[in-house]
């Protein structure tokens, strides 16, 4: 299964001062996601391929084992929708983590499943 995480949306769901250090908040999320690659999460068994999509001031963080970083050159939503469409036939399917209604509609239209940020063990 491919898990695509909308970093801006998930980080923004926790009012912990993330806006003062967007890259640092994205790194904390990346680090929290790494164990899920083998353990799975909220009814989705591992192993998982995890892609964390970052944009804006959060760009520049690097991938770590278990979490690939996708640096969006523009809209993170556009990058997430494109990834979901490219991977729609993947064994195990595609799950996108976001609370963005517009993005939800876009990725569901290509067959992805959507779960909200609270389904992740973050923060």
Report on the architecture of this protein.
The protein has 123 residues and is α/β, with parallel strands linked by helices. It is 33% helix and 18% strand. It contains 5 helices and 5 strands; from the N terminus they run βαααββαβαβ. It has helices at residues 7-12, 22-33, 36-39, 76-86, 101-108; strands at residues 2-6, 49-54, 68-71, 94-97, 113-115. The protein has a 5-stranded parallel sheet, sandwiched between helices. The longest helix has 12 residues, at 22-33. It is globular.
Q: How would you briefly describe this protein structure?
A:
This protein has 123 residues and is an alpha/beta fold. The protein has helices spanning 7-12, 22-33, 36-39, 76-86, 101-108, and strands spanning 2-6, 49-54, 68-71, 94-97, 113-115. The chain is globular and about 40 Å long.
